[in-house]
Amino acid sequence: MDFFSYRDHTLMCEEVPVREIAKQAGTPVYIYSAKTATEHVARIQEAFAPIDPLICFSMKANSNHTLLTRLLAQGVGCDVVSGGELFRALKAGCSPDKIVFAGVSKTDGEIETALKTGILMFNVESIAELENIDKIAGELGTPGRVALRLNPDVDPETHRYITTGKLENKFGIDMKVAAAVLDDWHFKNVSFVGFHLHIGSQITQTKPYAESITKTLALIEHARNKNHPVEYLNVGGGFGINYFGNEARTMPEYAEVIVPLLKDQGLKILFEPGRFIVGNAGILVTEALYIKESGAKRFVMCDAGMTDLMRPSLYQAYHKIWPVTSPIEFDSIADPEQDPRLVLTDVVGPICESGDFFAQDRRIPLVSRGDLLSVFSAGAYGFTMSSTYNSHPRPAEVLVEGSEWNVVRNRETYEDLIRDEVI
Ligand code: LLP
Description:
The protein contains twelve helices and 21 strands. By secondary structure, the protein is an alpha/beta fold. The chain folds into two domains: about 5-30 and about 280-420, Beta Barrel (Lyase, Ornithine Decarboxylase, Chain A, domain 1); about 35-280, TIM Barrel, CATH 3.20.20.10.
């Protein structure tokens, strides 16, 4: 679901023509639809109303300040994984008691700041980290709350780079180890408040959730038998979205499986979705600078590249790409292989790497120099994973709200590139 649509053959973001934004803000540019993101939050809230979860938006997906403020206005909290994200969350007005902090390598400084801030809880990823938080909390005289992030050894059936809940992954604590720690709980400065799960990202099946929650419920029973009052279960994020068409489950489909498992367990439930909220709420708009026929290939060479959106290069991820203005409607294509209006194209960027592409051997309408292309579903893990490799300044970010739009992050300048260098 999103509020990007073609009207009179031109792409609109909510009520604003995308080409107008590109004309004024330049390209490459990320364009976010606030209404899409807030609608996604509402869908989670509705589907899971029977268990009344606190949704902690996973900021790594998109940490833009203004967009974040729109999500916070819906009552969501934040899932942070660094001191930087904690800083951003607080700056955007997130209440500390709605912040959870995961990540396998939290520094002493980050732990100290989070303790002093009074965050809701740390999601602890190892026993060594637990000992360290306990030590720092003791030194500061500031007690902390911890959830144990479990590694339930469940296959989320997604790309291996975004699989996090199998024992071969660095994340979470082996469930046997977690049980042993609870049996012999000797930490004085941190209180154990519950468990955290996050088994992977772009999960398009309900089964991995059912499996990991069922395993965790057994451990919760064990913990309660040992007199640990387990208060929270954080189910993590990972809900998949549609990049192709209909590959993802809907929120009611997830809820149908998850709600009955959690309903009468006496637990406060947390979720930390990122992609589901913002993934389809953003596009990256780029201009086709040159066209080149080379051997059997037709290359469309754009002003955006892997430095702006690295998902295709890193995960061979599919992102729909379509001209911002096109008489051919994407939805009118029955079979791209057979449609004579489409041309086999490689959509590539300016970076000096052969892995710098958005699409290879993709059949899209004929693109000419100067045309604008939209790379869809780029709202999650787009800008946040961008870099300035090849000294390409990062793109601008624009937030659309109805018929209004604003630049919410300026395009970086050449001066920005050397700002922190000591000359
Ligand atoms: N919670 C934790 C502890 C996480 O590590 C993540 C994502 C999330 C929540 C949010 O997951 P989501 O709901 O967005 O699936 N760069 C990759 C995705 C990496 C995900 C990392 N962790 C991509 O572009 O596909």
